[in-house]
Write a structure and sequence with these properties.
Blueprint: H1 3-23, H2 31-58, E1 63-65, H3 67-83, H4 103-119, H5 121-127, H6 130-137, E2 140-141, E3 147-148, H7 149-163, H8 166-169, H9 176-181, H10 193-222, H11 229-238, H12 248-260, E4 267-271, E5 292-296, H13 297-302, H14 304-307, H15 317-322, H16 326-335, H17 349-366, E6 367-377, E7 385-394
Antiparallel strand pairs: 1-7, 2-3, 4-5, 6-7
Amino acid sequence: MDVRLQTEKHRNSLQSAIEISVTYPRPALTTSHIRSYGPIVFRHVQHFISNLSAANADSKDHVLNIAEHVHTLTFNTVVELIYGPSISLDGKPWTETTSGEGILAAFRAMSKFGWGAFYVPLLAWLMSTRPMLRMIRKPTFNAAGAQTGVGALAARAKLLLLEQPELVIGVDQPSIAKNVLMMDKEDSRHMEPSELFKECFNLLFAGPGSTAAALTGVLERLGSEEGIPWHERIRNDLDHVNEASKSRVLDAVVRESMRYSAPFPTAFPREVQPGAEKAITGVKAPLPVGTIVGANSWVISRHTSVWGSDALQWKPERWLDAKEDITGKKLIEDRFVVFSKGPRGCIGKDIAMLVVTQAVAGVVSKWRIESVGKTEKGGWLEMQIKWCSLRMAMI
């Protein structure tokens, strides 16, 4: 097949995956559903704090690389939120099971090459060749012969959603899959199990990595010289609210950190539709229908024309000042494009904010953190953080 046709086929399939993930699971991600997921997130955050405590106790000078710990938290949390507790046979977080061996590295590689293939035609063609597909789909096994990696998770997900959905529906704990499976078939939002299986993997592909980058970025900023004074402000505010998500100070720190270091810094692609040829402000000539356009969130989040002369400074107070009045709040929210905007914006943003705020609250309530050395990043188009060292002193 012609390379250009292969490239276009791959590009279209990925674009379809993106559009599906934006369209279908919203009924399972309403405000009430997000609230019901809170206890699950809290449990995983407590496990994360416990693991950090143990690792910090064994570390030299209490300096710890938190990057892998953070990715472990976000991955295990999202897996259980999607599939429910039945995803794990022994009740452990997925990465701590036998089948979870090597899963984080596998998903990081998938994310890196998946998004790279969307933007780089040659890479898209290489990824679609038979040798490469065989290599990607080749199952992995541990020394005992148990299947591991992405294949093991896919096999378990297939069992739950396509073969024995009662294992998902029959538990009290809420999950995204359960909420979708319980919809009436007459409901226009109903999804067939095979479609849900694909959609759940799309969510798993998109969510944990970017959420991990966001959380790591917030903790790195709080460990910086300008961030350390905010520890006490966060703790004081948490003492006056019932939950982390209601802390205005914590929310300001999280949003400013995401603006300052966008977890997904590349452009979200959009296709110009009929009637929208002149929709982009500042572009004088109409764009042909079918043109792929995008707004780079990293550039927008640091541009002085959008954020002012202090755009390159980390200043959480800009969010606190803006929220003093309705107009100011709307203006600053309109500029915040980390999760994209509109009907095709990130559907998992509320879950991401829930995980990040609870985790940051847990860390700041227990330790005084200080950034040590430089943060090492490893992604091409999606932010992946391989190394972020913090000195963690108990309060």
